[in-house]
Amino acid sequence: MTDNRSHSLHGATLDLAGLLPAGTMGIDAGMTMTKIARAAPKGVEVSARETASLGDISWPALRADAESVGITGARVALLAANGGSVSVPEIDAAARGCIALLSADDGLGDGEFVMALLGTGTAFAAVSNGKVSHLGGTALGGGSFAGIAHRVAPELSYDAAIAAAVSGDRTTVDVMISDVYPEGLGRIGPDLTAAHLARKGRGSTADFLAGLLNLHAESIAMIAAGRARMASANRIVLCGGFIHNNDRLVEGITSMATRFGNAVETVPAPGYAGAIGAALIAADVQQ
């Protein structure tokens, strides 16, 4: 049986030379996965492991030769007892990471956006000129997708469940507006969803997972659009582990959020925004 705990955050060296100062490291201990970003000669060395495994790791070995370490995330307490590190609020770390990654990609623009941080759950924040204001969140995220997917297909890993969702046809399990109103209804187009996963007994497991992923995409997008309106913004930037290597989720969020007049962007290496931001903030503090 495939290990259902595996995740799509794989180790690599990001081609982002100079993004992190030499000797810096960031650790984002999320509820499910812990992401690590470390300055390297050719860029940023990133890796991920299950948060549950942190208790088996030697802190000196994890830290290695890093002179400055920032720690963040929902499970930061698992690391906070270790000396010589700077604890950074999760939203602040992710926002700083988003700013740095957008800047590295020449995409920061005016620096104002609503950040959607999609991890086990999803949090939103308004970012303006480097200042961050938390806008609440939703319990929908990678945790709910993975939990429901495991109930339906326990033999599938997280990566396999995402792949199945990409191959599936959600219209076999979702009731579409076109099923009720072929021409749409007012401003509501026929291609929109009338009821998620409402066709009982229809479709394959892949079709169900496609509908499940779309349920998350559309729901998170509508909440993000509402938060953007609260913040008088029309730009939404996506980051977090649930977005990482998940193009279908990004497509679904973008399709829905743009209907509300929002532009949607995804930072490079979105799963590591928090770890990178924690490293940068720690470097500032420990100068």
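^ that was protein a. below is b, sequence first then the tokens
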Amino acid sequence: MKVAYLGPPGTNGEEAAIRAAPDAERLPCTSHAEVAKAVDSGRADIGVVAIENLLTGSVAETLDILIHETSLRIQAELLVPIVHNLVVRPGTKLEDICVVYSHTQALGQCRKFLETRLPHAAVEASLSTAGAVDVAMKHGGDAAAIATARAAALFGGEVLVPGIGDSANNVTRFVVLSAGRRPPSGHDVTAIAFWFANDSPGSLAGVLDEFAIRGINCRKIESRPTRETFGEYVFLVDFEAHEDDPLGAAVLAAIRPLCSSVKVFGSYPSGV
């Protein structure tokens, strides 16, 4: 088996890939979109992508991929504890740092540290946290990266300040993508997207009422732009039932006539 993930080695995505398939060959990718393409093309059997963080919320790139770019389905979810560290070239001091590199998610999750301890340092986004370490090591003694301790070791850096995240309880939810449907486990979540051809008062409420009257809990509700017309949105709901369970099948059948389109991202065992 081969698992695609957001690389290079040393990222939190690699940690999620190891947890998803400990014995699989790992295929590092430069973006979540490439992860999905690797599975779609057959270069990988499964892909692991970040979808939500405790501090910064949903990963927009992943949601847009699921909505617009792939027919792969979510097979599982993984909760991975996140520890962000300030990584530098050996010998670099805090006062030497003029620029900090990391993935945008990591930068957002370490905002308080950056504002209070490195207020004059420039912040530069990288494709991954591990890639940020590589860039920082090549940049010189005035650069730092926010990354894992494993990334520091892989690229010859050292952890100058450990645990710089805004929360000591930071967690990222990853999902495992592949083709096919997963059978019910008895404790499942189904993720869907739906949208309306003609938005009108009560459209969204009418869909949500179908969950309420069946006693189905919606654990997450949000929206993303349709990418077609400004002010029009795709709505996303994670609800507690499997699409093949009687309740799950019934609610999907009830909401389809109310929407112009409903896309099921998958049903999978809840890890929350």
